[in-house]
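Please think about what follows:
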Amino acid sequence: MSRIHMIRHGRPASTWGDADHDPGLDPVGLEQARTVARVLLALPESERPDRVVSSPLRRCRETAQPLADALGVTVEIDPRVGEIPTPAALDAEARPGWLRQAFQGRWSDIPGDLDYVAWTRRVAQGVASHPGAAVFSHFVALNAAVSVATGGEAVAAFRPDHVSVTVFDLVDGDLILINKGQEASTQVL
């Protein structure tokens, strides 16, 4: 058995529809990143992450960096734990409405040019391929991993707050949900 901590990124400097499509963290988000690193480092040694994995997006990489620095490791980038792909036909302005609609239903009902049920499995496989790691990711990817681990179909299985830590164990290659991270009301829904 191996423990995996999946963390939502800290508060970004901009949100959907803003000009910056890959924002970093705002000052609050930077402090959140330092705080979650301290929280993870304070875990008992048997549960403490020894690797740091991140989505390719800047807000996740910046959230992951304080923990990586403290552990003396390099942040490993894994696109499988990245943000949910937007249908090719949608522009950046249409994305928020598309996501809001998606969050009201099931993975199999999301409109677009991708099999989003298969996408959830790829996210879960990505997370599961990093035993012992802290995996820094996104609201939707966290929901994807939780859905696979629990067999749920709802896109919005829970509302992870910024730097919320969700805990999984890896048993025989499968993610087992141990604890959902802290929830909060968000702009996403």
